[in-house]
Amino acid sequence: MCQLLGMNCNTPTDIVFSFEGFRLRGGLTDRHADGFGIGFFENKGVRMFHDDKPSASSPVADLVKTYQIKSTNVIAHIRKATQGGVGLANTHPFIREMWGEYWLFAHNGHLGGFQPEEGKYYRPVGSTDSERAFCFMLEQLRNRFEHKPPVGKLFAEVATLTAQIRHHGLFNFMLSNGDILFAHASTLLHYIIRQAPFGEAHLIDNDVAVDFAAVTTPNDRVAVIATQPLTANETWTQLAVNELVAFRDGDIILRDCPDNPRYLSQQEGLAIARAVGVAA
Amino acid sequence: MCQLLGMNCNTPTDIVFSFEGFRLRGGLTDRHADGFGIGFFENKGVRMFHDDKPSASSPVADLVKTYQIKSTNVIAHIRKATQGGVGLANTHPFIREMWGEYWLFAHNGHLGGFQPEEGKYYRPVGSTDSERAFCFMLEQLRNRFEHKPPVGKLFAEVATLTAQIRHHGLFNFMLSNGDILFAHASTLLHYIIRQAPFGEAHLIDNDVAVDFAAVTTPNDRVAVIATQPLTANETWTQLAVNELVAFRDGDIILRDCPDNPRYLSQQEGLAIARAVGVAA
C-alpha cells in the first residue's frame, strides 16, 4: 500500500525531518518503490516534485532534503503501484485549479469499481482510481459552488462526497488548497500537533533526532499527518475509521467522526488492504 | 523581458545543452533574475520545476542539469518580473488540464490591458497578464470543443485566439499538450531543427560545445525554440512578427504566417519591449 505524509502549519516550516523518515519507506525500510511526489504550497503557488524512481534513492528527493523548502501546507506520497502503471501521469499528488486556487490531492487505498462519468470541469490524465476520485470530488464541488464557499459549507460537502466515494473501497486521502488540509481515514492515518513547549523527536526509520525547540518560535504550531507515526518518542493520534478532519494553521478546526469510532491496529489495516488487493 | 525556451522532438531527448546556455541568462549573462520554471512532458505526465531564485544560481536548475531528464516536449521560461510580483504563483510555465491532457504555457511580453471576464473552466491563481491569457485561451477552446478536435481545427482556433489577444500588447508564447508545441512571435522568437547529419554546436553564453552526432541516432529530429539563438555556429530561423507555428515530432506541421512577413532585429525587438515597459 502507498503511504501518505502531510503537513499543515501556522508559519512556513520545513518538512525535511519528517520527509527524511518517510522517504526511506520508499524502497529502503519498506516497499513503496514505484515513485513518489511532494507538493509544497508557497502562498498561492505550488512547488511540485515528482519522480518515478524510489524516494529512498531519488535525486529529486535529495534536492527536497537539501533545499529545505519552507511551506505551510505540504502533501507527499510514496507509491506502490496497484491501479495504473508506473509513470509520471500516475504519480501523486495530483494538482488542479478550482475557484482560482490550486488543489493538491494524494490517496492511499483502492477504489477499483469507481468509474464516475466524464466530468465537465475536471478529467483524469492518468489511469489511477485516485485521480478519478480527485476529479470527481472537484467536479461535484465546482458544480455545487460557482465560487469558494465558507469553510463550514465546504467541509460538509467534502464529508458528503467522501462518504459516497469510500463505499467503493479504501479511501485514505489528503486534500489541500494551501489553507485547509483535509485528511480522511478508511484504515490507517495518524497525526501529531507540535506546539510550545517543543521537545526532541526521534525518527523511527532512521537514526536521526531533532530538537524542535531549537528550530521553532513559541507561537509555531505544526500538524504532521502520516499513514504511520514517524517518530518513536511522541504520541501520535490515530484517525478513526471513516473520520474526516480539517486542519488550518496547524490545528484541527472541523472534524466528522463516526458515533462509535473504531481504530484499526497496523495489522488490521494491512490485512484489509491485502484483502482488496493493495497489500504492501 | 523574459526569455522562452522550448523543445519538441520525435524521440525523448535531454535539453541539458540548450538549458545550460539559457539558464545563464537568468542572472549571469543577462538580467532575467526573478525566477525560472521548466516543464517536461513524459508521456502524458508532466514534471515541473519552479524556482523564485535566479536560474543561474538555483539548486533546482542544478538538478535539471545533473538529472538529464529526457522528454519529447519541454517549455522553459526565465523571468524578469514586470506584471505581478515575484513569487511561485507567478512563475511560468503554467499548467492546466484540458480534455484529459495537461497543457503547459509560457509567455514573454506584456498584455497590460487584457482583463477577460472570469472563466467557467479556468481561472488564474496568480496575478500575471500571462496566466490570464493562458486561462482565456483554454476557456475559449474548452467552450468551443467538448473534446479535443483534430489538429487542423485546433490550430485554426489557436490562431484566431492568438490574433485576438495580441492586440493587447506583446504576445510571444509557447503552448504544448506534450504532442504539439505551438509557438507564436510578437517580436523575437527563433528555432532550429536538428536532424541527421548532426554536427557540433557551440553555446553563445558558455564555453561549451556538443557533438550531436555522438548523442543521437540517425532518425532523431529535435526542434529547439528560443527567444534568441543559443548557439553561435548554427543557423537559426526567426519567426515573423505575428507568425504562429505548430511543431510535432521535431518538425513544423502547420504555420500561419502573415502575407508580408516582417522580421525584427534584436535591437528593434528590445526597443518595442522597452516602449511597452518590459525592457530587460
UniProtKB/TrEMBL annotation, chains A, B:
Q: Enumerate the UniProt keywords alphabetically.
A: Glutamine amidotransferase, Transferase
Q: Which domain of life is it from?
A: Bacteria
Pfam families linked: GATase_4 (PF13230)
Q: Which residues are in the Glutamine amidotransferase type-2 domain?
A: 2-280
**Which stretches are transmembrane?**
none
Question: Which GO-annotated molecular functions does the record name?
Answer: transferase activity
| Name the UniProt record assigns to this protein | Class II glutamine amidotransferase
Source organism (scientific name): Eikenella halliae
